[in-house]
Specification:
This protein is an all-alpha fold and 137 residues long. Helices cover 69% and strands 0% of the residues.
Length: 137
C-alpha cells in the first residue's frame, strides 16, 4: 500500500513541476513559488515546508487548495491530481472566470515571457482593440 501511495505522490509531483515550469518557475526557488501561491490563499497561508513536501512527493494538497493551485497554473484539476484528461483547461474557461486566481494565472504567464514575446502579446492586444473599434464604427 505504501508503494502505491508514494508513486501516486510522485506522479502528482511530476505534474506539478511540469505545470510550474510551463509558467516560468524554477523548482529550486521554492520561496518565490510559496510567496506567489500564498497570493491565492487569503484565508490560510501555505508554508514553504508544505510546498517543499508537494514538490518532493511527500504529500498532495487538500482538494480546495488543489483546485486553486490548478487554476493558478492554468491546468485541469483532474489532470494535476490524477493525471486524467487534458493538461490544460480550455482558454475560454480560464478567461471567462473573473476570479483573482485566473488573473493571477494570466499575470504569472505574462511575467514568464521574454521581452520579445511580451511585445508580440501587446501588439496582438492592440490589434484586437483596433479591430473591435473598426467593427463598432
Amino acid at each position: 500500500m505504501s508503494k502505491i501511495f508514494h508513486s501516486e505522490n510522485d506522479a502528482f509531483t511530476q505534474r506539478l513541476i511540469l505545470a510550474l515550469n510551463n509558467i516560468g518557475y524554477e523548482i529550486k526557488n521554492i520561496n518565490r513559488i510559496t510567496i506567489d501561491i500564498n497570493k491565492l490563499f487569503d484565508d490560510k497561508s501555505i508554508t514553504t515546508h508544505a510546498v517543499r513536501k508537494w514538490l518532493s512527493g511527500q504529500t498532495i494538497p487538500i482538494h480546495s487548495r488543489l483546485l486553486r493551485l490548478a487554476g493558478w497554473l492554468g491546468v485541469s484539476p483532474s489532470w494535476l491530481r490524477f493525471g486524467e484528461g487534458d493538461m490544460y483547461k480550455l482558454p475560454i474557461e480560464s478567461i471567462h472566470q473573473s476570479n483573482d486566481s485566473q488573473f493571477s494565472l494570466l499575470f504569472a504567464k505574462i511575467k514568464s515571457l521574454s521581452k520579445e514575446e511580451l511585445i508580440l502579446v501587446v501588439n496582438q492586444i492592440e490589434l484586437i482593440q483596433k479591430i473591435r473599434k473598426n467593427i463598432k464604427n
